[in-house]
């Protein structure tokens, strides 16, 4: 496998969100856009990852319109019929599918990586600028808002793909 971890991550996000949620995502660089650093995020989905000696969480941060769009597409119901529980369940499933797919590419024999059950919560008062100031965070843009992903634990667990 010749891809770097960020390349593999971007490919995986595009595949999972495009196929399972009918949502086209591209990196900020690909879109030629810069996220507004003061914009708040709505929900955070976190999934625990352990591999070798490392353990931590991969975190996804969603704009509210994007969270609604993803859940509406996945569940095949109108966005105005969604309750927060359904949105949370869908975003947890999105985290599980994305990180599971990524680990499958990094560790095809499942020797090293393990996933926990995802947890979805309100993101609190976090802003895009706050999240993007962290290392190993990438921004994806869609017509429905931003998705931010903190993948630092995967980088730690699978250093040979940097």
- Strand tally is 7
Share in helix: 40-55%
Indicate the proportion of strand residues: 15-25%
Shape: globular
Report the CATH architecture.
3-Layer(aba) Sandwich
Feature tags:
162 residues, alpha+beta, Chemotaxis protein chec, 7-stranded antiparallel sheet, 6 helices, 7 strands, 41% helix
Short description:
The protein is α+β, with helices and mostly antiparallel strands and 162 residues long. The protein has helices spanning 5-21, 28-31, 64-75, 84-106, 128-132, 152-157; strands at residues 26-27, 43-51, 54-62, 113-115, 119-122, 137-142, 145-150.
Description:
With 162 residues, the chain is an alpha+beta fold. It contains six helices and seven strands. A hairpin with a 2-residue loop joins strand 2 and strand 3. The longest helix is centred in the middle third of the chain and has 23 residues, at 84-106.
Give the topology.
Elements: H1 5-21, E1 26-27, H2 28-31, E2 43-51, E3 54-62, H3 64-75, H4 84-106, E4 113-115, E5 119-122, H5 128-132, E6 137-142, E7 145-150, H6 152-157
Antiparallel strand pairs: 1-6, 2-3, 2-4, 2-5, 3-7, 6-7
Helix pairs in contact: 1-4, 3-4
């Amino acid at each position: 496998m010749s891809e770097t971890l960020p390349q593999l991550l971007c490919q995986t996000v595009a595949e999972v969100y495009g196929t399972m949620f009918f949502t086209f995502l591209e990196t900020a660089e690909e879109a030629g856009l810069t996220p507004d650093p003061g914009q708040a995020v709505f929900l955070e989905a976190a999934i625990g990852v352990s591999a070798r000696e490392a353990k931590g969480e991969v975190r996804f941060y969603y704009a509210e319109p994007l969270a609604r769009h993803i859940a509406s597409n996945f569940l095949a119901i109108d966005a105005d019929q969604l309750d927060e529980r359904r949105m949370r369940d869908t975003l947890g499933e999105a985290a599980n599918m994305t990180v599971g797919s990524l680990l499958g590419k990094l560790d095809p024999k499942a020797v090293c990586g393990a996933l926990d059950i995802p947890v979805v919560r309100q993101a609190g008062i976090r802003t895009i600028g706050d999240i993007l100031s962290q290392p190993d965070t990438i921004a994806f843009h869609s017509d429905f808002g931003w998705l931010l992903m903190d993948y630092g634990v995967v980088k730690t667990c699978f250093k040979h793909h940097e």
